């Protein structure tokens, strides 16, 4: 099984990286870019047998490692 | 928080304001404050900003001296080092934020202290950090230590300012309250000091740097709150550091400071916009009107309350000369930073805050700054103090295998090699680092001169727990000794006083004792206190940390070429011990690491001997007589000898040493006391060193020779340096699970 | 000769490089702001170390889009000497002036320490003052120095002798223990096919004075100056 | 309009970060995690009026800045 994880900064948390990208794009002439937020996209290959097992694994590893839940949110899809 | 929020007793309490303090606020205001004003008072009168519990003691510090250009009260202290050059330096804590989010907490701690330095007009050239973590086996310790170290590196490395020293210690007393103290030193032209003063009626007040967001609101009050069990939930206020923007801010500020457009400048640190407006107006005896509509904002719909209390990072407030607005604008725009004129200096002694055409806060400056509550809190020696100081040495079993005991000590968390930490810090950028981490103190050259600056941070909190007066004095003595060992003359200190809840009489007693110890030691060493920081309420579930008054000390080398390093240089060199040996086991690392005990009286400082020994080592270094110098601190003489053998950058060299003191073997090898320095010299110079030391009143004797592959002391220890190195250098990575 | 040192927002070894070329080497040196286009007659361009744009997104990515990079590309195409150190190396790769990519260090940590590197070629403008196979001790300080490219490319780099420096131990042996960041083929520095653009992760400007314990790095600067002297710059 | 960009390392490109995450997860007892690849997830707010304009913007900024096509692939969704 495979899981796709999307980790994003929580709303309101400052994203200096996104700001810098937006700024650079503007300097390159892309005034049409109004805002950029940079997050992570993680692909996880799982050897779990059932969807439930995979669910449990993903929840745990997201909370414990993949996301820093103090400032980040995450969601995942299992397929 | 909306403007029409009714002020209820509950709201007052939630702002950390007592009933009595609230009555005082009403009398200052002559009316009921609105919510924005209440917020402003709450941060200005928080422990963090007002020092309400500590002020009565801090005034005992010696703060003046011929070199002091700026003492406590400004963003940083400044000392004159001659030839028109001055250095600004300070240390700050970021303990609570780092416990909540170690990477960002530590990073923004570094960001904050850097701003404190460049706001004075100095270019930062060195960072240090003093860290305390819980028991290495505690489940959160690894996570916290890794995050903090990465965060400090992440910020300092990006800024291009070397992190050249510091300390790391582990103890269970920090399980629920880690300490992250960050130090920065900058260099400046001594005639171009910038202060946080809003003078000149009509001068524009200019906001520069990052936009304001909802970060860290209540951060200042948080720093003054005891962590409850729910401490980990207060999360959304975490500030995210942006070292890239700070680097631009640094360059832009220094570029602007090279012109004469600035009247006053202050960073927005704790309590952000509030603190900078009030403090700047207060220092000039002026007033200010600011319009929040003009403040660059990151988020929609921010209320005046939020804007005034936001702790968004990387922002500064400038008061410029009238008519120079465009010069300011041009420079900040060049560096792609936000810049906005947000107000004006007035002469009515009030800060008036406007939003959407209305006055949303109107507060007299002097009372909020000077009539902040001041407490002389009850003080009482802890009931357990005397008991803890008792140590029956007969009850300490002498280990059978000294070699193995020695190896165990070398790999104990507090004595293990800390290169795991400093290799994550760029400690060489700026190409000034003459003595890199791993020595007693870092030495930085000052390009264009022969001078060098040496810096160190020190504190043994176990000593301070057992005897806060002696422990604090020892921290100062050790700092001075570390500077002397590299050849520098100690000049001044900054401090970071980390303690528990000041409302408890025992904590206040520890605080009072520690401040008294520092004050006495600073008088003795002639190293005035030029600034510092107090961090109280470091406790969780009413378990306080050990009192931890960290000392950051700065010293000067007139000729940076004449410095010393701790490691042996050559086979056959003579090893001398400066200072007498009166080691003891009270509070020692050996007692803790091997016997799992924290007991006894820590060494008491013998100021005369300390000064004599330090003077001797400096004199010999200056005369070019020493090959190496290293002080004996935690772990005693055996550990110090090991460090001299192991820190050598190009291949290890061992030594054979004979100690003749008539004490039991573990005390001889691992006992601790002040005023001891191990030096090595060529055989030809040994006698000259001994004579100089004696002339200066410092005991000195030959104890051995450099050489070989085995470190041997009497017939007690004989260990291959390779094995020693293996155990010592792999311990930290192991602790971190690598 | 004239060294133009390019300053990107976030460059932080710009002053260090200027110090070495002017104060230690006694050459002419000046800063070029990244928004400029004019290279002001520089004979050699240095892209210094640091954290341009905070290393955000990818190290060097945003700096590679700076206005000055068009001029750098034409300068290099015309045979001008370009040296990228650390972040400068990352920028040159992002600008496709050098091949491959510098990924996160194997340890995922920032590493600052002295390493040894073996000089693989001495017939270049950047290494002429070194002995063949000479081992230099030079500090590194980076988070992303783990060189990667595909198999074909690495073969090509070997064939064309484009690997200029390899991480090694004190005795010159190249092996995993001496490789600080996991770089493929222990690459510490590269040169382009034409031989006028070089990138390296180690910082020679940090070890060019005896007061800083080590002068191995000065050989790189001496090489450049000697080369230019021969060319009559 | 909003675009979501997924940047992933190309197949065969070494991913030290993904490797380290997998390693840590294994050490934490997650033997069920067979592989991890770490990429980026970027949200871009666009002021472009039409879908075509947005398409053009996104294509250009991905090629020029958001992805390093030597080692990375990207895809995006505009909504
Ligand atoms: N957090 C840290 N950051 C940078 N350097 C550190 C840190 N901790 C320890 N070091 C360095 O490790 C060396 C040994 O530290 P320590 O044992 O505290 O020295 P001392 O006992 O002489 O005060 C010093 O050079 C110190 O600067
Ligand atoms: Mg020491």
What is the average per-residue confidence, as pLDDT of chain A, rounded to a whole number? 93
- Report, as a whole number of angstroms, the end-to-end distance of chain B: 47 Å
**Structural class of the helix and strand makeup of chain A?**
alpha+beta
Oligomer: heterotetramer
Query: How would you characterize the largest beta sheet of chain B?
Result: 7 strands, mixed
Total helical elements of chain A: 2
The CATH topology name of chain A reads Mth169, Chain: A
Largest sheet of chain A: 3 strands, antiparallel
What is the CATH architecture annotation of chain A?
2-Layer Sandwich
Percent helix of chain A:
25-40%
Please compute the radius of gyration of chain A using only Cα atoms: 16 Å
Tell me the radius of gyration of chain B: 26 Å
Describe the structure.
The complex is a heterotetramer, with two copies of chain A (79 residues), one copy of chain B (738 residues) and one copy of chain C (233 residues). With 79 residues, chain A is α+β, with helices and mostly antiparallel strands. Chain A has one domain (2-78): Phosphoribosylformylglycinamidine synthase subunit PurS (Mth169, Chain: A, 2-Layer Sandwich). Chain A has helices at residues 16-27, 51-66, and strands at 2-9, 33-46, 72-78. The longest helix of chain A is centred in the last third of the chain and has 16 residues, at 51-66. Chain B has 738 residues and is of the alpha+beta class. Chain B has a seven-stranded mixed beta sheet with strand order 8-10-7-11-9-12-13. A seven-stranded mixed beta sheet of chain B has the order 23-25-22-26-24-27-28. In chain B, strand 27 and strand 28 (717-720) form a beta hairpin. In chain B, helix 10 packs antiparallel against helix 13 and helix 22 packs across helix 25 (686-695). The radius of gyration of chain B is 26 Å and the shape is globular. Chain C has 233 residues and is an alpha/beta fold. Chain C has one domain: Class I glutamine amidotransferase (GATase) domain (Rossmann fold), CATH 3.40.50.880. Chain C contains five helices and eleven strands. Chain C has helices at residues 14-24, 68-77, 87-94, 151-159, 218-231, and strands spanning 2-7, 28-33, 44-47, 81-85, 101-103, 111-119, 135-142, 146-148, 163-168, 187-191, 197-200. Chain C has a nine-stranded mixed beta sheet, with helices on both faces. Chain C has a two-stranded antiparallel ribbon with strand order 5-8. In chain C, strand 3, helix 2 (68-77) and strand 4 form a beta-alpha-beta unit. The longest helix of chain C has 14 residues, at 218-231. The mean pLDDT of chain C is 97. The site of adenosine-5'-diphosphate (ADP) has 18 residues of chain B, from strand 4, strand 5 and helix 17.
């Amino acid at each position: 099984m495979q899981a796709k994880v999307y980790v994003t900064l929580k709303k309101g948390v400052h994203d200096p990286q996104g700001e810098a990208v937006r700024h650079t794009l503007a300097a390159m002439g892309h005034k049409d870019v109004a805002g950029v937020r940079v997050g992570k996209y993680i692909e996880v290959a799982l050897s779990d047998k059932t969807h439930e097992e995979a669910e449990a694994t993903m929840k745990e590893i997201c909370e414990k490692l993949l996301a820093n839940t103090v400032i980040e949110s995450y969601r995942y899809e299992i397929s | 928080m909306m403007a029409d929020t009714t002020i209820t007793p509950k709201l007052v309490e939630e702002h950390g304001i007592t009933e009595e303090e609230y009555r005082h606020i009403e009398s200052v205001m002559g009316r009921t404050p609105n919510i924005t004003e209440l917020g402003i008072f709450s941060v200005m009168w928080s422990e963090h900003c007002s020092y309400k519990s500590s002020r009565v003691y801090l005034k005992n510090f010696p703060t003046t001296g011929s070199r002091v250009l700026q003492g406590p009260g400004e963003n940083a202290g400044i000392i004159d080092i001659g030839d028109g050059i001055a250095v600004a330096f300070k240390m700050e804590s970021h303990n609570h934020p780092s416990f909540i989010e170690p990477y960002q907490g530590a990073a923004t701690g570094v960001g904050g202290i850097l701003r404190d330095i460049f706001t004075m007009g100095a270019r930062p050239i060195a960072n240090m950090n003093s860290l305390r973590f819980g028991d290495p086996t505690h489940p959160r310790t690894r996570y916290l230590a890794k995050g903090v170290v990465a965060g400090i590196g992440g910020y300092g490395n990006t800024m291009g300012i070397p992190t050249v020293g510091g300390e790391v210690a582990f103890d269970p007393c920090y399980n629920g309250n880690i300490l992250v103290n960050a130090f920065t030193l900058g260099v400046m032209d001594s005639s171009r000091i910038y202060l946080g003063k809003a003078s000149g009626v009509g001068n524009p007040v200019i906001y520069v740097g990052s936009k304001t967001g909802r970060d860290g609101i209540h951060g200042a009050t948080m720093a003054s709150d005891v962590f409850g069990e729910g401490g980990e939930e207060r999360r959304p206020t975490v500030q995210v550091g942006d070292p890239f923007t700070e680097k631009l801010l640094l360059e832009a500020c220094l570029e602007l400071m090279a012109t004469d457009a600035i009247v006053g400048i202050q960073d927005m640190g704790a309590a952000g916009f509030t603190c900078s407006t009030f403090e700047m107006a207060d220092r000039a005896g002026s007033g200010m009107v600011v319009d929040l509509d003009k403040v660059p904002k990151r988020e929609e719909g921010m209320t005046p309350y939020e804007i005034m209390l936001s702790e968004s990072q990387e922002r500064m407030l400038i008061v410029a000369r009238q008519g120079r607005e465009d010069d300011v604008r041009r420079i900040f725009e060049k560096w792609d930073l936000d810049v906005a004129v947000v107000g004006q200096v007035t002469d009515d002694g009030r800060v008036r805050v406007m939003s959407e055409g209305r006055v949303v806060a109107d507060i007299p400056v002097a009372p909020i700054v000077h009539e902040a509550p001041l407490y002389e809190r009850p003080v009482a020696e802890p009931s357990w103090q005397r008991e803890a100081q008792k140590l029956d040495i007969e009850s300490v079993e002498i280990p059978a295998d000294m070699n193995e005991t020695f190896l165990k000590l070398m790999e104990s968390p507090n004595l293990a090699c800390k290169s795991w930490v400093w290799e994550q810090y760029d400690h060489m950028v700026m190409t000034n680092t003459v003595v890199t981490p791993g020595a007693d103190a870092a030495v930085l050259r000052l390009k264009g001169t022969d001078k060098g600056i040496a810096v160190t941070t020190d504190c043994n909190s176990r000593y301070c727990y057992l005897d806060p007066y002696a422990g604090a004095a020892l921290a100062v003595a050790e700092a001075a000794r570390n500077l002397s060992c590299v050849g520098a003359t100690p000049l001044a200190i900054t401090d970071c006083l980390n303690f528990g809840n000041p409302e408890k009489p025992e904590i206040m007693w520890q605080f009072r004792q520690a401040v008294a110890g520092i004050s006495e030691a600073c008088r003795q060493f002639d190293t005035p206190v030029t600034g510092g920081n107090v961090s109280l309420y470091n406790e969780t579930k009413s378990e306080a940390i050990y009192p931890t008054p960290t000392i950051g000390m700065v010293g000067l080398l007139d000729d940076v070429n004449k410095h010393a390093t701790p490691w042996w240089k050559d086979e056959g060199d003579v090893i001398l011990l400066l200072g007498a040996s009166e080691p003891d086991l009270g509070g020692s690392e050996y007692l803790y690491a091997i016997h799992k005990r924290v007991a006894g009286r820590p060494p008491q400082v013998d100021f005369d001997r300390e000064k004599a020994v330090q003077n001797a080592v400096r004199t010999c270094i200056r005369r070019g007589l020493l090959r190496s110098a290293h002080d004996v601190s935690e772990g005693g003489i055996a550990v110090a000898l090991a460090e001299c053998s192991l820190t050598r950058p190009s291949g290890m060299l061992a030594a054979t040493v004979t100690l003749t003191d008539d004490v039991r073997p573990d005390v001889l090898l691992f006992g601790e006391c002040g005023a001891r320095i191990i030096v090595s010299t060529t055989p030809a110079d040994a006698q000259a060193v001994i004579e100089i030391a004696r002339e200066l009143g410092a005991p000195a004797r030959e104890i051995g020779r450099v050489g070989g592959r085995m470190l041997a002391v009497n017939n007690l220890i004989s260990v291959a340096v390779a094995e020693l190195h293996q155990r010592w250098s792999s311990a930290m990575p192991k602790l971190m699970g690598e | 000769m004239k060294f133009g040192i390019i300053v990107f927002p976030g460059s932080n070894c710009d002053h260090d490089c200027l110090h070495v070329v002017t104060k230690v080497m006694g050459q002419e040196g000046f800063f070029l702001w990244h928004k400029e286009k004019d290279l002001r007659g520089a004979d050699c361009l240095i892209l210094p170390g640091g954290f341009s744009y905070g290393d955000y997104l990818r190290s060097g990515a945003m700096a590679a889009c700076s206005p000055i990079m068009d001029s750098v590309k034409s300068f290099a195409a015309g045979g001008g000497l370009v040296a990228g150190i650390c972040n400068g190396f990352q920028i040159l790769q992002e600008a496709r002036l050098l091949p491959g990519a510098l990924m996160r260090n194997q340890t995922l940590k920032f590493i600052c320490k002295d390493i040894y590197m073996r000089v693989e070629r001495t017939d270049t403008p950047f290494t002429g003052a070194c002995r063949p196979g000479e081992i230099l001790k030079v500090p590194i300080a980076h988070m992303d120095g783990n060189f990667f490219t595909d198999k074909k490319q690495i073969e090509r780099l070997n064939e064309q002798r484009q690997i200029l420096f390899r991480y090694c131990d004190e005795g010159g042996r190249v092996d995993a223990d001496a490789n600080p960041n996991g770089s493929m083929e222990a690459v510490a520095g590269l040169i382009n096919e034409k031989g006028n653009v070089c990138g390296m992760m180690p910082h020679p400007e940090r070890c060019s004075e005896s007061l800083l314990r080590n002068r191995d790095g000065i050989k790189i600067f001496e090489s450049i100056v000697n080369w230019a002297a021969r060319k009559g710059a």
